[in-house]
Amino acid sequence: PSLPVITQAPEVSISACYNYPNPTYNGKTTIRVEFSGSTSATLEISIYDAAGDLVREGLKQKASGSNFVECPWDGRNGNGRQVANGVYFARCIIDDGTKKTARLIKIAVLK
């Protein structure tokens, strides 16, 4: 009898994480995460202000057969109000179902 071949999928890793435009245009921006190891990962984003307070969560986008995913942020907080000018941080988490990898980026909001 032969031994079964066991292959392990490569772990997901982030190769680039940024937003454009930065500073934002009319308070809006798109966050892009490029990754390797999976083509079916989900991007989850939480936005924080400069004091570290949570501004918005629940931004999600699924990669569909590619090694990048983009998610727009309309510059609004969790209550639907436009955030003030300033510096914000986006915590970007790529989840391929077996492992989560995170990156933090800085976003300048100007209106």
Short key terms for the protein model shown above:
111 residues; mainly beta; four-stranded antiparallel sheet; three-stranded antiparallel sheet; 59% strand; elongated
SSE blueprint and pairings:
Blueprint: E1 13-25, E2 28-36, E3 42-49, E4 54-62, E5 68-73, E6 86-95, E7 100-109
Antiparallel strand pairs: 1-2, 2-5, 3-4, 3-6, 6-7
Quick gist of this model?
With 111 residues, the protein is an all-beta fold.
How would you describe what is shown here?
By secondary structure, this protein is mainly β. 0% of the residues lie in helices and 59% in strands. The chain has no helices and 7 strands. The strands form 2 sheets. The chain has a 4-stranded antiparallel β-sheet with strand order 4-3-6-7, with no helix packed on it. It has a 3-stranded antiparallel β-sheet with strand order 1-2-5, with no helix packed on it. A hairpin with a 4-residue loop joins strand 3 and strand 4. It starts with 12 loop residues before the first strand and ends with a strand.
